[in-house]
Amino acid sequence: MSQYISNIKSPKVSIAPMVDRTDRHFRYFTRLLTKKSLLYTEMITAQAIIHGDRNMLLDFDVFERPLALQIAGCDAKNIGKAVKIAEGWDYDEINLNVGCPSDRVSGNEMGASLMAYPELVRDMVKVMKENTDKPITVKHRIGIDGNGVLPDNFGRKLLDKYEDLTKFVDIVEEAKVDRFTVHARIAILAGLSPKENREIPPIRYADVYKLKNDFPHLNIEINGGIKTTKEIKEHLNYVDGVMIGRAAYDTPFILSEVDKFFDDGEINNISRREVIEGLIQYLSNLDDNTREYNVLKHAMGLFYGVRGSKNWRQLITPPWDKEKNAVDVLREALEILPQDVLNMRVQE
Asked: Where does FMN bind (predicted)?
């Protein structure tokens, strides 16, 4: 079989798609901190794109780019329709979700359960590529425990060996996937919540390293439990890119450092004061119907680990005084929080 070598360059760092997290407000906040990382939408089903409010689902600000759209589905025809519709929004990449372990998703034969059907994933990617010239990527797990989910006639329900992973990749790469983003845990499709699936199955980074070694022509990005820039640097010795998830949400100021992993090595080096000023400008330009806390909730961890963290969280958490709005709250924060922390930069 001929090997497909993608002509796209994998981002050194990306921020994982997270349901109820990576909305437009979070992406704007994140882009203040990192100018180069690839951002993602929340997972959006193909059916929602076909039948739902497309502007609400797909609109984004050019400031958020580079930005990838993540789609979930289990039918190649519908996936193709959704990708064709999304062409009107000009995302930088489109990603197929083959990793979500939620019962709501896997029970509908989407997400991680698709790892049991690599030929279907391959066919969906082929149809996606027929409907766009944008890079098509796949985000998946290193394996699955399908007991209680996969049908009785499926045969093996535990696909957790490295050989199962390589079989999946070997088949799916026939569709000329531009990048494989691999969460280094198996997904347990029954009995665990999505949160538990991020914590309980053992992390197996070595499997992802070996995958890159065995498929050197592929773009391989690693995901799962990565929390610090030191860890990012270590992983980049073995793979093409690193995707971080909850750490980007819980400790977002680390994102002001991650641009150093890209080619020119120049970090964004923004201060928390400048981030807050950016949020003030953003809020000032928002539609009046936007619930302002839906913006500020994403910045809850901005002062994680430094003086003023508790005061910051208290300030931006409603209820606020009746005469105050979110902009007033942020301006108050600039006055009362420790000035040295507000002005602190990674490189001083």
From this structure: 17-19, 70, 139, 183, 223-225, 245-246
Res 280: pLDDT: 97
pLDDT tens column, 69-82: 999 999 999 999 99
CA distance 282 to 315: 18
Listed in sequence order, the residues at least 6 apart from 290 whose beta carbon sits closer than 8 Å to its beta carbon are none
Residue 183, marked binder: yes
Given the residues 82, 100, 127, 316, select the one marked as catalytic.
Answer: 100
Q: Tell me whether residue 100 is one of the annotated catalytic residues.
A: yes
Look at the domain 13-261 and name its fold: TIM Barrel (3.20.20)
Listed in sequence order, the residues at least 6 apart from 189 whose beta carbon sits closer than 8 Å to its beta carbon are 101, 103, 106, 112, 113, 144, 145, 146, 147, 148, 149, 150
Neighbour-count burial of 277, counting CB atoms closer than 10 A to its CB (0-12 exposed, 13-18 middle, 19+ buried):
middle
The encoded tokens of residue 103 equal 């019962």
What is the rounded distance in angstroms from the CA atom of residue 50 to the CA atom of residue 182?
Answer: 28
Q: Is the peptide bond before 66 cis (omega within 30 degrees of 0)?
A: yes
Specify the pLDDT at position 103.
Answer: 62
State both tokens at 286: 């928002």
- Render the burial of 247-275: b for 16+ CB within 10 Å, e for the rest: bbbebbbbbbbbbbbbeeeebbebbbbbb
Q: How many whole angstroms separate alpha carbon 239 and alpha carbon 219?
A: 8
3-class SS of residue 209: helix
Confidence (pTM): 0.95
**Helix or strand or coil: residue 141?**
strand
Residue 224 marked as a ligand binder? yes
Q: What are the residue ranges spanned by the domains of the chain? A: 13-261, 272-343
Min mean pLDDT across 37-51, 254-268, 287-301 is at 287-301
Closest CA relative to residue 169, chosen from 128, 199, 140? 140
Q: Is 339 annotated as a binding residue?
A: no
Determine whether the annotation assigns residue 54 to a binding site: no
Is the distance from CB of 203 to CB of 184 less than 8 angstroms?
yes
246 is in an annotated binding site: yes
> Could you tell me the CA-to-CA distances from 336 to 21, 292, 307, 311 in Å, in that order?
28, 21, 12, 9
